[in-house]
Design brief:
By secondary structure, this protein is an all-alpha fold. Helix content is 70%, strand content 0%. The protein has 5 helices and no strands.
């Protein structure tokens, strides 16, 4: 009943989802997961799967959505920066090798 109220849907609809008579929209899945403070994929986990969620994962899953979003953006930016650095390093090394080879060719002329 409380889940239905928090999701602004009828308790009957929750019952139909639970019994398999209805399948919620993507938006409703996200809303339910947000209210339950879990990731949406966890709604589809096999209840007989005893794979434990680590303490760190559990803490991360319980963070508010806006904090998780900020973390994802920061991680994405860090990855982009790291990739750019690696590419620039490789390009610089390649350019040095090319210049060195050209100098060798020119010195031989």
């Amino acid at each position: 009943m409380k889940l239905a109220v928090c999701c602004d849907i009828s308790p009957g609809y929750i019952g139909e989802i639970e019994s398999g008579r209805k399948f919620p929209s993507t938006e409703m899945i996200e809303k339910i997961a947000l209210v339950l403070r879990i990731e949406p994929y966890q709604l589809f986990r096999n209840p007989n799967d005893n794979t434990a969620i680590s303490k760190d994962d559990s803490l991360l899953l319980r963070l508010p959505y806006n904090i998780k979003k900020q973390i994802k953006v920061k991680i994405k930016n860090l990855i982009k920066t790291q990739i750019k650095t690696q590419i620039n390093t490789q390009v610089n090394l390649s350019m040095k090798e090319i210049i060195s080879e050209l100098n060798g060719i020119l010195d031989g002329c």
